[in-house]
Amino acid sequence: MKSIKIAAAGGVLALALTACSGGGAGSSSGEDGAAAEPSDLTIGVAMPTETSERWIADGDAVKSQLEEAGYTVDLQYAADDIPTQAQQIDQMITKGADLLIVASIDGTALANQLQAAADQGIPVIAYDRLINGTENVDFYVTFDNYNVGVQQATSLLVGLGVLNADGSEAGAAGPFNIELFAGSLDDNNAHFFFRGAMDTLQPYIDNGTLVVKSGQTEIEQVATLRWLQETAQKRMEDLLTSTYADGSKVDGVLSPYDGISRGIITALQNAGYGDTIEAGLPIVSGQDAEIASVKLIQDGVQFSTIFKDTRKLAEQAVVSAQAFLEGDEPEANNTEDYDNGVKVVPSYLLESDIVYADNIQSLLIDSGYWTEEEVAAGQAD
C-alpha cells in the first residue's frame, strides 16, 4: 500500500505523551511515577488475514501511525485461522506487549487470551470486530455497522429505481426479485450489517415491491463463512439453479462485502446475465471500496460499495491506545449498543459513505484513498 493510505488522516500523531495520574492496568508510568516513553512500549496488533485488501490496509495504517507516534509495533496476520490468531496473541503477551489491538477472526474464540492479558494488566482494544463472551475487552473502535447495513440496502434500492440517492422515493414499483447474502456468522459485524439491511428492506418486501424468490431471509440461511468469494459464487450458482430455472430473473442482490460481490457477479455473468448492468446484470451492492470492485463500479458492473476509511479507523485506534497508555479512558461516543454477552463495551463509531460511479472521484480519488490510475487499472500500485 502506498504511504498516502497509511498516513494519519489528521494531526493526531503529533499528540505528546504526558504523565497522567494513576497506575495499574493501562498506565505507562514507570516505577518512579514518570510517564514511560513511547519507544519503551510495545503494542501488539492482531489482524485476521492478508487475503483481503481491506485488512492489509488496516494493518499498514495502524502500524504506521503507531510507529510514527514512537511505539514499537508487533503486527501479525493469522491467515483466517483461529488457532493461529490465538497463538499469535499468546506470544504477544509472553513477549511483554503493553496493549493489544485485535481484529478477531472469530469473536468468541479469544476468551483465554484476553483473560491472560487482563491478568497482566494489558488493555485490549477490539478493532472493527467486537470480541464476545468476555469482560476483558476494554474498548471498541469501529464504524456504525448497523448504518453500514442500512446503506447497503439503500444502495440496492437506488439501483432498482425504488429510491433516489438522497433517500426519497423514486417511483419504481416492482416487483423485483432479489436475493440476500450476509457475512460470516462468527463475525459480530455481519449481524449488525444484516439487521440494518433487513430493517431497511423489510417494508418493501412486505408491500410486494421486493420478492426474495428463494425464500431465504434468515441470516443463518444466507451467511457466507469467512466472507469467501468462492463460497458466495457457489451459493449464487445454486440459487440460480434451484430458484430461477423457470426463466425468471434476479433483479438485485444484497451483498455485504466486495469479495462476496465479485463472486456473485461471476456467477451471474456465467449464467448469461450480461457483463454490465446496462446489458442485464442485476444490481449488486458491496462494502470496503476494494480497488477491484471500485473499477467494476466505474465500468458499470457492480453498482455500489460502502467506503469505510481505514485511515480514520486506524487513527481512532491510536488515539484510544494512547489514552490507555497514559492511564486515561478513551473517549466513547456509544455506550449502549455493543453488548458482547458479558458487558456493554464502550465504543467509538465512525461514519461510512455509499460509493456510486458518480462519486468515486470525490470520495476515493480526491481524498487520496485511491489514485485515478489505480481505479482505471483496478489494482493498487
Descriptive account of the structure:
There is one protein chain. By secondary structure, the protein is of the alpha/beta class. The chain has 2 domains: 3-137 and 310-350, Response regulator (Rossmann fold); 145-307 and 372-377, Rossmann fold (3-Layer(aba) Sandwich), CATH 3.40.50. Helix content is 38%, strand content 13%. The chain has helices spanning 3-6, 53-68, 82-94, 111-119, 145-160, 188-206, 219-222, 229-243, 258-270, 291-298, 310-325, 360-365, 372-377, and strands at residues 42-47, 72-77, 99-102, 124-127, 139-143, 176-180, 210-212, 252-254, 283-284, 305-307, 347-350, 353-355. It has a 6-stranded parallel beta sheet, sandwiched between helices. Strand 8, helix 9 (258-270) and strand 9 (283-284) form a beta-alpha-beta unit. Helix 2 packs across helix 11 and helix 8 crosses helix 9. The protein is elongated. The N and C termini lie close together (7 Å). Mean pLDDT is 91; it is low at 1-28 and 30-34.
Sum this structure up briefly:
With 381 residues, the chain is of the alpha/beta class. It has helices spanning 3-6, 53-68, 82-94, 111-119, 145-160, 188-206, 219-222, 229-243, 258-270, 291-298, 310-325, 360-365, 372-377, and strands at residues 42-47, 72-77, 99-102, 124-127, 139-143, 176-180, 210-212, 252-254, 283-284, 305-307, 347-350, 353-355.
